[in-house]
Design brief:
Blueprint lengths: L26 E2 L6 E2 L8 E4 L4 E5 L11 E6 L6 E5 L6 E10 L5 E8 L5 E4 L11 E8 L2 E10 L8
């Protein structure tokens, strides 16, 4: 089976938009080793729910895949590493994530991915976003660039996950 170069649209492009009743999205959870996402899973919610850590690899982005996105949420505070990595060393992440700490008067920092060197998000300690409630979104901007946004949860003076 081949995927058509132009995709079918649900919306007809009018000013009123469209409604899709009964719509729900795929939830990806429960894997124990590294998992490579597929472009066909765009829009999925990826759940980090194994304390020992979990790794995700983003799919390659074809021109027709620009705009695909994935949401990530931490539901179990990690003791290992939660990570999201691009598909290639030449595919970068741009954008920023805000931080919140469970420690009074800590957190409130913003960590920036520069779009020219960052290829992964890594929550490998209590300072880098592996606490329950961390949530990020990655959106494909081009075949070599993903945008990141979200909020990291941790404890103490938080540190960059990039």
């Amino acid at each position: 089976m081949t995927i058509a170069a132009s995709r079918e649209r649900v919306d007809y492009g009018g000013d009123d938009g469209c409604a899709l009743y009964g719509n729900s999205r795929q939830v990806i959870q429960g894997w124990t080793t590294g998992r490579r996402l597929k472009a066909s899973e765009s829009g999925a919610l990826v759940v980090f729910s194994t304390a020992a850590g979990q790794a995700i690899i983003l799919p390659p982005v074809a021109a027709r895949d620009v705009g695909m996105y994935f949401d990530f949420v931490v539901t179990v505070t990690g003791t290992g590493t939660y990570s999201v990595t691009t598909d290639a060393a030449t595919t970068f992440i741009i954008g920023a994530v805000d931080s919140s700490s469970t420690t009074v008067a800590e957190g409130g920092d913003t960590f920036v991915a520069d779009g020219t060197t960052v290829t992964n998000y890594t929550a490998d300690s209590d300072l880098t976003g592996r606490f329950v409630g961390t949530n990020i979104r990655l959106t494909a901007l081009s075949p070599t660039l993903w945008a990141i946004q979200g909020t990291l949860m941790g404890v103490g003076t938080l540190a960059t996950p990039f």
